Amino acid sequence: MIYTHFCGSWGHYTCLSWLPTFFSEELNLNLTDAAWVSILPPLGSMVITSIAAPFADNLISSGVDTTKVRKICQAIAFLSPAAFMMLSSVDLGLPPWVVVAFLTGGISLSNFALSGLYCTHQDISREYASILLGITNTVGAVPGIVGVALVGYLVDTTHSWSMSLFAPSIFFYLTGTAVWLTFASSEPQDFNKLASESL
């Protein structure tokens, strides 16, 4: 859960911070257009959030194992932005509005994590969910500091948005998916029992 939270935050924070500059410098949008276009991913996220929760609830209500539902939702949350970032990072000669649509779609679909990773804390321990989220969120905040600065440094040194912004995010999305699909579980844990047994 910690690594997956870190991976999701890397893509989220670096894109939120650097997409306006990418839209302006790489897609040659003027500053006003870049600012207006930058609001699209958060708007798309609101729409996807209202879809992801009922989607997960309906699967669980129809008898699909909770762990499987969390894995499906998290895979959508990570593989979607990774795929759209791959398409946006290569020069396919696409018009700027198509690249904007790709990035908006990918970042919006990453909100499926709200029915994946972010529900798993409560799945495994209702009593300690807040502590578990505090732990994973603390590590998840690191990309907001380190990732944003590193992308800026890489853009300055490589002059490549593909290598600076998209490649690291794609790497973390793909490795985060692999780790999540391999190790994630929504099986309830009795931390009180584990603590008493260790004493």
Automatic annotation (TrEMBL):
SUPFAM superfamilies: MFS general substrate transporter
Pfam families: MFS_1
Key words of the record: Chloroplast, Membrane, Plastid, Transit peptide, Transmembrane, Transmembrane helix
Regions crossing the membrane: 34-60, 96-119, 131-155, 161-183
GO cellular component: chloroplast membrane
Entry membrane topology: Multi-pass membrane protein
Subcellular location: Plastid, Chloroplast membrane
InterPro entries in UniProt: MFS, MFS_Na/Anion_cotransporter, MFS_trans_sf
Signal peptide (UniProt feature, chain positions): none
Gene Ontology terms for molecular function: transmembrane transporter activity
Function: Probable anion transporter.
Family affiliation: Belongs to the major facilitator superfamily. Sodium/anion cotransporter (TC 2.A.1.14) family.
Protein name according to UniProt: Major facilitator superfamily (MFS) profile domain-containing protein
